[in-house]
């Protein structure tokens, strides 16, 4: 394992932030720390980086006990949400900074920096200043700077959080490709479920300072450990005391065996998909269908319909906790 976190606890004052957290991050993997705000994600990342000391527990990086090592001795690259660029230095000098303070030969620095700028598609921007770059370009520069010193581990704290939705989508695709090229062990914090599912090899779901589940994106989405994970990893609808994904529900204008009666409250067209909002036993619910199927049903607010999980649909009983 590249990173082993064991039984880590961390409190700020009387407020516990991490509670008996243990995770393993495989060498060369891309792992997402996913969860709601205040769940402990950034604190765990900072503990791994050495920017926070755990109250109890240990952190091993590449087999070395790093629990009490300074950040400088952990060979970890850290990228913050807000770039932390040196405004008075060019893109080239920003990326070269870590190598310069390590007194590397100038020829080696130039070779390494230009390789990285080409890798992050900023080779034409080498002589520009951070203020002359877009938000996405500045974040790519920050990643190149973190990679320049060849860290064993790359830690990203909501790296795309300050960017607009379209740029975020472009950069997360780019991050996955970059990782596949450099294979540096990477851990990133996000509260964006789609981002974690699209980019990560492994997702660690954190809430209330505890690890709720660890697994591949498919495992945590298709086989959630509890109702919290199922709700957090995607939309759900409650039918008969069970949580079901809205796209896993059959809806019919006619009564169906095993079906539950519901009343249509609203129909929302979202491009190819249609969201049919319902009331079931006084509670809000919804079903996701295709536009053609919605047109075929011809539903309108006030109609009574029958809903039931598709055969083979994954559901989770609310009594599971």
UniProtKB/TrEMBL annotation:
Single GO molecular function: ATP hydrolysis activity
Classification via SUPFAM superfamilies: MOP-like, P-loop containing nucleoside triphosphate hydrolases
A Pfam family that the UniProt record links to this protein: TOBE_3
Protein name as it appears in the record: ABC-type quaternary amine transporter
Entry annotated with the keyword Heme: no
SMART domains attached to this UniProt entry: AAA
Top-rank taxon: Bacteria
């Amino acid at each position: 394992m590249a990173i082993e976190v064991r039984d880590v606890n961390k409190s700020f004052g009387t407020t516990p932030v991490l509670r008996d957290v243990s995770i393993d991050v495989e060498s060369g993997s891309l792992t997402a720390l996913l969860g709601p705000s205040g769940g402990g994600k950034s604190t765990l990342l900072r503990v791994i980086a050495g920017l926070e000391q755990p109250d109890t527990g240990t952190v091993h990086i590449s087999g070395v006990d790093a629990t009490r090592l300074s950040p400088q001795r952990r060979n970890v690259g850290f990228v913050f949400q807000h770039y932390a660029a040196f405004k008075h230095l060019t893109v080239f000098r920003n990326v070269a900074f870590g190598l310069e303070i390590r007194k590397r030969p100038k020829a080696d620095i130039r070779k390494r920096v230009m390789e990285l700028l080409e890798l992050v598609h900023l080779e034409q921007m080498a002589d520009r200043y951070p203020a002359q770059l877009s938000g996405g370009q500045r974040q790519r520069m920050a990643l190149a700077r973190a990679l320049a010193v060849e860290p064993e581990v790359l830690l990203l704290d909501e790296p795309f959080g300050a960017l607009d939705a379209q740029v975020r989508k472009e950069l997360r695709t780019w991050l996955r490709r970059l990782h596949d090229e450099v294979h540096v062990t990477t851990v990133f914090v996000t509260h964006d479920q789609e981002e974690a599912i699209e980019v990560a090899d492994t997702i660690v779901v954190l809430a209330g300072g505890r690890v709720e589940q660890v697994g591949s994106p498919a495992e945590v989405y298709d086989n959630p450990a509890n109702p919290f994970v199922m709700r957090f990893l995607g939309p759900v609808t409650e039918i008969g005391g069970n949580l079901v994904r809205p796209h896993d529900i059959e809806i019919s204008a006619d009564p169906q065996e095993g079906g539950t009666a519901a009343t249509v409250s609203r129909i929302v067209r979202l491009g190819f998909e249609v969201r049919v909002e319902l009331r079931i036993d006084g509670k809000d619910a919804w079903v996701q269908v295709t536009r053609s199927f919605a047109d075929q049903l011809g539903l309108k607010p006030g109609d009574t319909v029958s809903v039931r999980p598709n055969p083979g649909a994954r559901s989770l009983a609310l009594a599971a906790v």
